[in-house]
Design brief:
Blueprint: H1 2-21, E1 33-40, E2 43-50, E3 78-82, E4 86-88, E5 91-93, E6 96-103, E7 110-115, H2 133-138, E8 140-146, E9 149-150, E10 157-165, E11 171-179, E12 181-188, H3 191-202
Antiparallel strand pairs: 1-2, 2-3, 3-6, 4-5, 6-7, 7-8, 9-12, 10-11, 11-12
Length: 203
């Protein structure tokens, strides 16, 4: 009986050890999932997105047409999440998830939209293939115009990438990089306001 117990114990340990070290494979996809997270002040900001590649193509103006709303990624909607209320484009947004969309333009500013329903632009397409702007605007939490920046040394960012900069630990800079373009927008995490609200709640 003692030998059976010891054998069972050794077998359990061996199986447990194997399960902890077993290799886990992911299915390869053309636009792999990616994520970035950053604490800024009293707020966590995270972005989940798919990361398409340039693959020798012209990105903006061809693969991503100018003057059309783009989902700012591939496959699923690109989702940005705020753990507290924040200010974007002078508008206060409640804590939660928002879908990012971008309208690139050949000249002038680009537009960045945050969708409160977490939907990408395709969800608002009419039967004729055009964007139902009225329906789209109903779920539009905020829209900000930003100036695109271009690499001047022939640098190409092969895969779409998001970066969240903590900066002064109050206002974050969210950057989208792909191809030869960078676009950024600011997120004010309002730490002083959250501290004030937290203090009031304790009284």
């Amino acid at each position: 009986m003692k030998n059976i117990t010891l054998t069972s114990l050794f077998l359990f340990v061996a199986i447990t050890s194997f399960s902890q070290t077993a290799t886990s494979y992911l299915s390869p996809v053309s636009s792999p999932q990616a994520s970035v997270s950053q604490n800024v002040g009293m707020t966590n900001i995270s972005i989940n997105y798919s990361s398409p590649g340039v693959k020798g193509r012209q990105v903006f103006g061809l693969l991503v047409p100018y003057n059309q709303v783009w989902r700012a990624g591939a496959n699923s909607p690109t989702i940005i999440k705020f753990s507290t209320s924040v200010i974007v484009g002078e508008k206060t947004l409640r804590a939660g998830e928002y879908a990012i969309a971008v309208t690139p333009r050949k000249g002038g500013d680009w537009t960045i939209d945050l969708n409160s329903a977490g939907k990408y632009p395709f969800a608002y397409m009419s039967n004729d293939g055009t964007l139902d702007r009225e329906a789209y605007n109903k779920d539009l939490a905020v829209s900000v115009d930003v100036k695109p920046e271009y690499w001047n040394n022939n640098t190409i960012v092969e895969r779409l990438k998001y970066i969240i900069g903590a900066n002064d630990n109050k206002k974050a800079i969210v950057s989208l990089l792909w191809g030869d373009v960078i676009v950024r927008f600011e997120v004010d995490t309002m730490p002083e306001k959250h501290i004030e609200n937290f203090t009031k709640a304790l009284k």
